[in-house]
Design goal:
CATH superfamily of the largest domain: Hypothetical protein af1432
Distance between the termini: 29 Å
Order of helices and strands: EHEHEHEHEHHHHHHHHHHH
Oligomer: single chain
Largest sheet: 5 strands, parallel
Shape: elongated
Number of strands: 5
Number of helices: 15
Strand content: 5-15%
Radius of gyration: 27 Å
CATH class of the largest domain: Mainly Alpha
Structural class: alpha/beta
Number of domains: 2
Strand order of the largest sheet: 2-1-3-4-5
Length: 338
């Protein structure tokens, strides 16, 4: 998974407990583990505390005066600002019915008093870690959706048939799975697929939509887009792994590509993979300067250029995906979407 730049700041925990001695004990344990602790003696004062700070986790007793833990939990879950905070019930009522009641409400965990320091810290850490993982997934999904919107808007200027970004990523993921790439490599590949042509934002419409061959001057402008794209995402930590893909997806195995003329294994492997699926999709979709080729003809072109334009080992992986029907499945699915 890509690093989205989360800092390992001290987490704040809201402890809601009406027993002063228990409150002090819980606070001392958690502060001893490096947490910042905010305390409240009942549900109503806990809600007041939540008005000024959103903690990483809430640890609450159930039986309390003024407002008990169950009512506090329901109020917390009603508010969008606090609904996602992990909530752990802490109570002396340890019957199976109480445990079931707490968890059936949707609480994240339930600890029965008396609680040891080890048990308390273990549960809190596990729930906090899981919450951060979910936040990371949600944030990454949001970023991807935003980037897809941007990439598709740029694609629309190119007068292509649409869904180019989605198809290229689907082809790329099929090959990555065939080659048994890990999650981190596949995540970087996905961002690279989404963003590979983002630099075309700097290419004039007259060049992108030109129905005939480009002049030498126009090619100079077109060939700038990988470097422009790389500069656009430079300095963004979670996109850094995708930068080599954006920069080098027009390099060739024989060294005749651009922008740097890299050859063979000097080209990042993800860029070599993307070059193959990007070219395949370009050949099988209508372009301003020519109609789409049949998929079989595009496939034969890839085979003919293995070892020259394309990495032969990755072409072999493409062949295996083709023979299994994975490539054709992507084409059919994306045609339905379009």
């Amino acid at each position: 998974m890509l690093d989205l730049g989360f800092r390992d700041d001290k987490s704040t925990i809201l402890v809601v407990e009406d027993d002063p001695a228990m409150m002090i004990a819980l606070r001392d344990i958690l502060e001893g583990e490096g947490y910042a602790v905010v305390t409240a003696s009942d549900g109503r004062s806990a809600l007041q505390a939540l008005e000024t700070e959103v903690p990483a986790l809430i640890l609450s007793d159930i039986s309390m005066p003024v407002m008990d833990g169950i009512e506090l939990f329901e109020m917390v879950r009603k508010e969008p600002r606090t609904a996602g905070i992990p909530f752990i019930f802490l109570t002396a009522r340890g019957t199976s019915e109480d445990v079931f009641a707490g968890k059936s409400l949707g609480a994240d965990d339930y600890i029965t008093k008396p609680v040891t320091s080890l048990q308390l810290v273990s549960v809190v850490r596990a729930r906090e870690r899981r919450s951060k993982e979910l936040q990371l997934i949600q944030l990454q999904s949001s970023y991807k959706a935003s980037l897809r919107t941007l990439a598709n808007a740029i694609e629309a200027r190119d007068n292509t048939t649409g869904q180019h970004v989605e198809r290229v990523n689907a082809y790329a993921q099929a090959l990555a799975e065939e080659m048994r790439w890990g999650e981190e490599s596949r995540s970087a590949l996905e961002f690279g697929a989404i963003l590979h042509d983002i630099g075309k934002i700097a290419v004039p419409d007259s060049i992108l939509a030109k129905p005939g061959k480009l002049s030498e001057e126009e090619w100079v402008e077109m060939r700038k887009h990988p470097e422009v794209g790389r500069r656009m995402i430079a300095g963004i930590p979670y996109l850094e792994p995708a930068a080599p893909i954006v920069l080098h997806h027009h390099e060739r195995w024989d060294g005749k590509g651009y922008p740097q003329g890299l050859a063979a294994e000097a080209i990042p492997v993800a860029a070599r993979l993307l070059a193959i699926v990007d070219t395949f999709d370009a050949m099988t979709t209508d372009r301003p300067y020519r109609p789409a080729l049949p998929a079989s003809a595009a496939f034969e072109t890839l085979l003919e250029n293995a070892g020259a334009q394309f990495d032969p080992e990755i072409v072999d992986a493409f062949v295996r995906c083709w023979e299994r029907g994975d490539i054709q499945k992507v084409m059919a699915q994306q045609t339905k979407v379009s």
